[in-house]
Each structure stands twice: as structure tokens, then as C-alpha cells.
Amino acid sequence: MPAGPRELLIDEAHAGERLDKLLAAQFPDLSRARIQALIESGAVLCDGVVVDVRGRKARPGERYVVRVPEPEAAAPAPQAIPLAVVYEDDEVIVIDKPAGLTVHPAPGHASGTLVNALLAHCDASLSGIGGVKRPGIVHRLDKDTTGLLVVAKTDRAHQSLAAQFAAHGADGRLERGYRAIVWGVPERSRGTVEAPIGRSRHNRTRMAVVPEAAGRWAATRFEVLETFAADDTTPGAKPIASELALTLETGRTHQVRVHMAHIGHPLLGDAAYGAGFKASARHLGAEAQAALAALGRQALHAALLGFEHPVTGKPMRFESPLPADMRALQEALRGRAPAMARRDKRR
Questions:
Q1: What are the pLDDT digits (tens) for 309-334?
Q2: What does each C-alpha distance from 331 to 232, 334, 336 come to in angstroms?
Q3: Domain 85-167: CATH class, spelled out
Q4: Which CATH number fits domain 4-68: 3.10.290.10, 3.40.710.10, 1.20.1290.10, 3.30.10.20?
Q5: Do the Cβ atoms of 223 and 189 come closer than 8 Å?
Q6: pLDDT digits (tens, 9 = 90+) for 76-96
Q7: Annotated catalytic residue: which of 142, 144, 270, 325?
Q8: In the chain, where does DSSP find H-type helix?
Q9: Overall fold of domain 176-307+322-333
Q10: Active site residue 142
Q11: Closest among 114, 119, 116, 117 to 139, alpha carbons compared
């Protein structure tokens, strides 16, 4: 399959056809699954605009461009990368992922990933359902998000875990909890953000809240655990930041980051979704400014992971404390008395 752009001008004969099916028919060397993956990655454009809905209906006169990337190595190689293993048996392995570790190989990250490390640690005994690039992977965390992640070591474990993640906890088997430090404080101490998420039309590497027809439904529950006063605040002024506990009802790409930015409370350190709040750092104390600079990433941690063991059926539940960099930021923000009593239940 040669790399490079493929172009297609829609005529009346193909009007109204589903886009992924149409492109696969027009370019026989690209399977429908491959076309769908290219759409998901932002590699398909309509009249110069990124397409983010694979079921889109084609219209006469539209010009589509499919950008096929250069081929990569067939399979990742095992690499002796240290892993923080929380739990492991013959079926699953639970990892506490550090910041900076990409989950699976992708353009720009062909090696040094969690998959490379797992192939070395597990001696290639990972589920093959995810394909050669994603063996055993049933969910993922952003490169700079820390915390708990489960990987399947057998195909039967992969099938069970994939079903649990697909249900997003609706059947009571899966539980995922995050901790985040955000700018400002939500108006309510508890609430749910419900807004569809799709690929940004302005930057294909980012996600955004989009119209319902252009995205996938997403819901994030939050609870305010603690608020932090600004260093230069005046009496009665609003706190400058807060720590939240978050629970996902869906699992969309960058969901927490997009939803928090959408309600006006992006994560501290989030260069992609919180750039507009960069100047807010000057209202922090010197220690907090230094801790934020040292963090160098979004302040987001996957602190809780619960699932049903894919073979025994036993409920499994794991918790991970805040990593050192987020803990340092938290303590620096507490340099002055917190604006609200702490209510961390460590659920």
C-alpha cells in the first residue's frame, strides 16, 4: 500500500453513500477498517477540512483527500523499560504508568512505549487481539497522564476487559476515577458534564466539544475536593484553583481535559486545552509557580481502577496515590490556608 494522498471527487452517482464504505470501494487497497482508522486519526479531509464522522454521507462536488502515512515496522520490539507493576497474574497485568510514557507505538513514537516494555516484561505473552502494535491494550492514558492501566495477557482476558470498557461501567463491573487540579472552581461542588466530543476542525491533533451529529456522546462526573487561594488574592476573592475527583461515564480521547476546558476550568499545565489560562500562573505564589513549571504536563492522574477479573469473576480494585510532581504542586498551592476545608474521601 503506497503512502501519499489519494483524491476523490464525488459525482451524482455516489451521492448519499456512506463515506467509509465509499472510500474503501474506490481505493481497494485500503480496507474499510483502515479507512475508518484514517478518519479517526484526522487523515481524511473534505475540501480541506478534517472529517471526523466516518458515517458521513457524501455529497456531489465534494473533494476528499485521504492521506496515507508511510508504513512503519511490522511489530514493536521488546525493550527493558522499568515498569511499576501493581498486580499481575496469568491473565492480566495492572501498571501504574509514569508521565512521559506513550502507551503504544504511533507516528513519532515507534519505540520506548508501554507496549515495548510489556513485550519485554511479559516475554511476548500478551493478547494478540489488539494487533501487533497494540497487543493486550484495552484502554489507554495520554502520554503525560499518570496512573492505573490494565493490560490483557490472554485473548479471553482481552475479550472480557474490552466488553467491560465498552460498557463504561453501566453494568457495574468497571470503575475509573481520576484526580485533577484545575483552574478556578466549578459553580457546583458536584456535577456532570455532558457534551459530545469529536476531532477539532481547527487542529486535527486535538479533540473538542462539537455538535451532536459530529461527535460522540461523552459524560464526566466531578466533585470538588479542595480549593486553593491565589497568592495575591484580596478578601472575598474567588479561589484560583481546585482539586477534583472525576469519574468517567464514557471513554473518549482527552475526555477529562476537553470537558474541563469546556466548562471554563482547564487542567493546570495543559498546554493543549488550557493555553488561555497560562497567564493565570502569575497569581500563584513563587513556590506554586515553580511546582507548576516543574510539573511540565497536565495535572491529571488515573487514581482508581476497578474491574471484574476476566476469568475468576472476582471484583478487582486498585488505587494509586498522587505522583510526586502533582503532590508537590498540591502542597505548594496549600502555601496559604485552603479556601475550603478538604473533603477528600479517597474513594
A1: 999 999 999 999 999 999 999 999 99
A2: 17, 5, 10
A3: alpha beta
A4: 3.10.290.10
A5: yes
A6: 889 999 999 999 999 999 999
A7: 142
A8: 19-26, 32-40, 114-121, 155-167, 255-262, 286-295, 324-333
A9: Pseudouridine synthase (3.30.2350)
A10: yes
A11: 114
